[in-house]
Write a structure and sequence with these properties.
Layout: H1 2-18, H2 25-31, H3 36-63, H4 68-97, H5 109-130
Helix pairs in contact: 1-4, 3-4, 3-5
Length: 131
């Protein structure tokens, strides 16, 4: 329900903006820093995306879930408020199938690199919005 509501509410605004991702992306980014309130919300969502991405990758590796990076990618392209609830649904379904949760999990090198890239993107976005 949250994912569907988020999709409708975010993309109704994106489409009004002039095509959302299909519209003028640089102007969209500039508008995100137009007011202190816009900057605050943008930084807040960006940092949530970072924390959410870390949680999704760690949990996916712990539970043997595949394609976790699609949730992260679509968090940027669609909305994290859409993809994070979808990940939580997939996680709960996976937990229901497992009788035991693996005690030891390790992130792959690509996971660490991917999380570093997400971190750099989010921090760069925050810097751009705030300065």
């Amino acid at each position: 329900l949250v994912a569907v509501t988020a999709l409708v509410m975010t993309w109704s605004q994106n489409l009004q903006y002039g095509g959302g991702a299909l519209g003028p992306p640089m102007q969209y980014l500039l508008d995100l820093k137009a007011t202190p309130a816009a900057r605050s919300f943008t930084v807040d969502i960006g940092l949530f995306l970072l924390a959410g991405a870390a949680l999704m990758v760690v949990e996916a590796r712990k539970l043997g879930m595949r394609l976790v990076w699609l949730y992260v990618l679509f968090g940027f392209l669609i909305a994290i408020s859409v993809t994070f609830p979808l990940f939580l649904i997939a996680r709960e379904r996976r937990l229901a199938k497992l009788e035991t949760i693996p005690a030891e999990t390790r992130l792959t090198a690509s996971d660490v690199i991917g999380l570093a890239v997400v971190t750099i993107i989010v921090l760069a976005m925050c810097w751009f919005i705030l300065f």
